[in-house]
Design brief:
Helix content: 55-70%
Number of helices: 3
Distance between the termini: 54 Å
Number of strands: 0
Shape: elongated
Structural class: mainly alpha
Length: 71
C-alpha cells in the first residue's frame, strides 16, 4: 500500500494525464459505477435469500452417474 509521498505522486500523475477539468467527470462516473455494482450485488443477494433453494454448484452434475451411486 502506497504511503503519503507515493500518493501525492500518483495524484499529480492523474492530474497531468487527465487534466483538472475531466477529473470531476471521471470521479462522478466511478461513483455511479460503484453504486450500480452495489445495487446489482444487493439484488442478487435478495434473489438468493428469497428463493432459498439456490445451491452453489458442487460440480457433481458433471460426474458420470455410476460414480454418484453408492455401491
Amino acid at each position: 500500500m502506497p504511503g503519503g509521498p507515493e500518493l501525492w505522486i500518483i495524484v499529480a500523475l492523474v492530474v497531468v494525464l487527465f487534466g483538472g477539468s475531466r477529473l470531476p467527470k471521471i470521479a462522478r462516473n466511478l461513483g455511479r459505477a460503484q453504486g450500480e455494482l452495489k445495487k446489482g450485488l444487493a439484488e442478487g443477494n435478495a434473489d438468493v435469500n428469497k428463493d432459498g433453494d439456490v445451491v452453489p454448484d458442487s460440480g457433481l452434475a458433471s460426474l458420470p452417474p455410476s460414480l454418484l451411486t453408492s455401491a
